[in-house]
Design goal:
1 helix; Ubiquitin-like (UB roll); 6-stranded mixed beta sheet; globular; mainly beta
């Protein structure tokens, strides 16, 4: 991911992941969520409102996420 990420919880000293958020096209660096479900919770999103994509494949909520994964979170429902 090429643009500078927005750091979430900058005091965190453990593993981090980067996630591209669509359709806003933002990149977030956040403490590593171990599963897709934990990532959605960290982003304050419900499972029904977003898709988690790794290497072009959808992840189910129980799938593991690793620090070097390129993750895209595509918001598919209106939050307004």
């Amino acid at each position: 991911m090429s643009t500078e990420p927005e750091i979430i919880n900058p005091g965190w000293t453990g593993a981090r992941i980067e996630a591209r958020i669509l359709p806003e096209d933002r990149i977030l660096s956040l403490p590593r969520a171990k599963t897709a479900r934990q990532l959605l919770a960290a982003l304050d999103l419900m499972e029904e409102t977003a898709l988690i994509i790794r290497d072009g494949k959808l992840l189910t909520p129980d799938r593991r996420i690793w620090p070097d994964d390129e993750i895209t979170v595509k918001i598919v429902a209106s939050r307004g």
